[in-house]
Amino acid sequence: MKKAVIVCHRGACLKAPENTIAALDGAIELGADVVEFDIRTSKDDVLYVIHDETVDRTTNGTGRIADLTSFQIDQLDAGSWFSPEFAGQTVPRLTDFLDTCAGRIATYAEIKMADPARVRDMLAARGMLQTAWTFSFEQSIRAETRAKVPDFRRMVLFSHVGSVERAIALDAHILEFHIENLTAERVAAAKSSGIRTQFFYDGNDPAVFADAIKCGVEQMNINEVELFREVEAELRSAVA
């Protein structure tokens, strides 16, 4: 049984404020293979790493990222909401975030609202494109990525495409499953077609992790890294 690749969802978001440099460093400390992060564009066209459309939940500011200038965003505290020890953490510019990743951890860039070609070029300039991949919940961004930057590896969701065959037809590189659509047969079909398999789960039920491992999923997009590794180690020792 091969150990799964660990994708740290929004960085080590249980130990540090999500999508910050502290969360990125935390993911590396946890031994994650990949960091997942979200990208949005400011009013003056600067790319930032942040999940929500607004800064309200994860900073001391208010307003939509698209309505704020980079100067305004750079002044925000993105750490105190999580814990006083993270006061002063900023909303990272994508350039700074990628510079911190380079040579340390691979990247999964979820594009909330940004030009995929710009993201691709930033990764390529740092020698990170070959190990990176992307996804967006925006259908227009997914289509634009496939058309404009075909060398940027793309992930699709099983809940969007509905079948392994459709993922193949879309030239997907990675197929992500959720609890409601994960089966060993689908995982095997994807793997036999050369598509990497991934499972997203932001909960902490060991039984869910065990099921994903038994289905043969290759990559785990998760928050509970340490718990997953414990479950994985138990199952590996049971079959040794």
UniProtKB/TrEMBL annotation:
Organism from which the protein derives: Roseibium aggregatum
Domain of life of the native organism: Bacteria
Gene3D superfamilies found in the cross-reference section: Phosphatidylinositol (PI) phosphodiesterase
UniProt-listed InterPro entries: GP_PDE_dom (IPR030395), PLC-like_Pdiesterase_TIM-brl (IPR017946)
Biological processes per GO annotation: lipid metabolic process
PROSITE patterns: GP_PDE
The GP-PDE domain, residue ranges: 4-232
A Pfam cross-reference name: GDPD
GO molecular function: phosphoric diester hydrolase activity
Name of protein: Glycerophosphodiester phosphodiesterase family protein
SUPFAM superfamilies: PLC-like phosphodiesterases
